[in-house]
Amino acid sequence: MSIYAGLNLEFVRRSEKPFAVGLEWAAKMGYQYVEPMVHTGRELMSEAGYYHSVSMEEDPHFIKDLLDEHGLKASGLSSHCPLMRPEISVMYLQRAIQFASVIGAPVVNTDESYRPAWVVGDEAWPIMTYTLKAVLRVAERYGISIGIEPHQAISKTTDGLLRIASLVDHPLLRINYDTGNAYLAGEDIYEALERVGSRLVHMHAKDISIEHSDAERGKVTGTPVGCACGDGVVDWARVISIIRKHGFQGVLSVECGSPEQAERSLAHLNALLAA
């Protein structure tokens, strides 16, 4: 496997389209990989076809059938949950791993999410360690990686991200680096990628416009989507050079806000990857 540009299904969220339409559009653009998002239970918006998230109460084989129908593969599974709430996260992530295994996604992506008000000080670390140990028992059985993403109060810094991803000494506990989240949090993303090195298993290719950067950099820990790759502040040629140097083989999953941005992102990244 080499490096490919993929597409997070967030790109259809503002279009109010369902999962199946997101796959159809991604395939027509020329993407080979997509990153579905999953949730537990049932909710109105996706059931009515206005939202791209897939319920894990759905049979994952039907989701695999849809991917196959459009000639697409799953680069990963977007399954964010609060690691400091094991009563939620253990069962959620274990189920996401089983779902990922059926649809062929090699990694389940998550972050520490919010800190509950009753978890104070250093209590966060043993709680997250317990959650990750319980989840990795199942991940090991299915051969699915857990990708920790920079997105919240701890993981917004490279030090915090690496500490979470090192709480359990396990080869399947890896990093899903989000360039846009880390940049907005104030990190040097190029230095961070050097430090992440071979721990990288998947990447959220999120660019940030100059206007967005001026308004929010250093004030937030992340953002749902960015602009088209190549339109913003991220030097994608430099990013690709760094991750290639560290032997990364996998998918740069574009996180943008519209189909038009998704098309431009694919053209920009493919040109750099071909070079």
Polypeptide structure, described:
The protein is α/β, with parallel strands linked by helices and 275 residues long. It has two domains: 9-74, no CATH class; 78-240, Alpha-Beta Barrel (TIM Barrel), CATH 3.20.20.150. The protein has helices at residues 19-29, 44-47, 60-69, 86-103, 124-142, 158-164, 179-184, 189-196, 210-216, 236-245, 259-274; strands at residues 4-8, 33-35, 38-39, 54-55, 73-74, 77-78, 107-110, 145-148, 173-178, 200-205, 251-254. A nine-stranded parallel β-sheet has the order 5-2-1-11-10-9-8-7-6. Strand 1, helix 1 and strand 2 form a beta-alpha-beta unit. Helix 8 (189-196) packs parallel to helix 10 (236-245).
Q: How many angstroms does the end-to-end distance come to? A: 17 Å
The assigned CATH architecture of the largest domain is: Alpha-Beta Barrel
Q: Mind telling me the CATH superfamily name of the largest domain? A: Divalent-metal-dependent TIM barrel enzymes
CATH fold-level label of the largest domain: TIM Barrel
Low-confidence parts lasting 5 or more residues at pLDDT below 50? none
Helix and strand sequence: EHEEHEHEEHEHEHEHHEHHEH
Strand order of the largest sheet: 5-2-1-11-10-9-8-7-6
Helix content: 40-55%
Tally of separate helices? 11
- Average per-residue pLDDT, rounded, comes to 97
| Protein structure class | alpha/beta
Number of strands: 11
Report the C-alpha radius of gyration, rounded: 17 Å
Q: Tell me, what is the CATH class of the largest domain?
A: Alpha Beta
| Outline | globular
How many strands, what sense, and barrel or not for the largest sheet? 9 strands, parallel
Number of domains: 2
Beta content comes to 5-15%
